[in-house]
Amino acid sequence: MPSRQNQTVEIRPATPDDAIRELLTLSWAQICPVSTGDSAGGCAREGEYAVIAAVKGKLTVTAHSQYALLSAGQAILLHAAGSYTLQGVSDSVAMTAVVQGELAGRLMGDRLREGAALFPGGAAAVREAVLALSVLAEENARVDGATASAYAYALLTRLRGIPQGEEGEGSAVSPLVEGAIAIIQEDFPYLEGLDDLAGRLEVSKAHLIRSFVRETGISPARYITRVRIEYAKLLLRGEDASITYVAEASGFANANYFAKVFRRETGMSPSEYLESAPQRESRPRLPKNPYPLW
């Protein structure tokens, strides 16, 4: 899987049907690298919520009278912000999702203070949703609107579960665990086990496992497996997806091992999932977080 964080990617899903559109719509998402001193912009119209995350580095977010400095791992929610500007304090990667609808107001309305809400640790939820949508955008001509709404729901519920912090508070997870999550989500097809992950983070494997389990409730190995399986599901929904290709692209050693793990995690074989995927897509509904961390 090529890195998606080194280039600007825009995702514009199709509009869902009226029933879903009124509840929750994700109209636009973006991955945007911002070099030190450079700026980028966006817009959230009346009734829309823009969720902006600093996935890497530090950046400022400015919109009308609103201003925030985001450190890596933090996210901010802006309501009806109009035009906003992002500027890199260091080499940064921002990810943004723009949503609207009745559910957005219900989930986020009480978190807003003067049109904004800060979420320490919220970048992980934004990154998961936007990266998943970018995979779907690569595999299909256009992301299905109902599927995008489902990812928006998962994103907002994840954010709502984060204790709201005051400006300047740190991430809900440590820099070590945040860094581990970022590497896993971006490079999971190429990771050669926990020794590789710990080496990249320059810590011992034992320390990584202790910290990850303490802060997330699951082991890093378990989280890697979950991310790989969710990516495999996305690939299996595409046209002409072979199980051997999906296994290799998702980071599994071979198709047989992939099939064994897939059945353990989902209760069905990859072939069974491949056959059932079209029916599942034809009746979309708002699921739980597609990339559950804990």
- The string of secondary-structure elements, in order, is EHEEEEEEEEHEHHHHHHHHH
Helix content: 40-55%
DSSP, total strands: 10
Structural class per helix/strand content? alpha+beta
Shape: globular
**Whole-number radius of gyration?**
19 Å
Give the termini distance in whole angstroms.
25 Å
Amount of beta strand? 15-25%
Number of helices: 11
Low-confidence stretches: 166-171, 278-294
Output the strand order for the largest sheet.
1-2-9-4-7-10
Largest sheet entry? 6 strands, antiparallel
Average of the residue pLDDT scores: 84
Protein architecture, described:
By secondary structure, the chain is of the alpha+beta class. 44% of the residues lie in helices and 21% in strands. It has eleven helices and ten strands. The protein has helices spanning 18-23, 102-108, 123-139, 145-160, 175-187, 194-201, 205-216, 220-236, 243-250, 255-266, 270-282, and strands spanning 9-11, 25-34, 39-44, 48-56, 59-63, 66-70, 75-79, 82-88, 92-100, 116-119. The strands form two sheets. It has a six-stranded antiparallel beta sheet. β5 (59-63) and β6 form a beta hairpin. α2 runs parallel beside α4, α5 packs parallel to α8 and α8 runs antiparallel to α9. It is globular. The model is unreliable at 166-171 and 278-294 (pLDDT under 50).
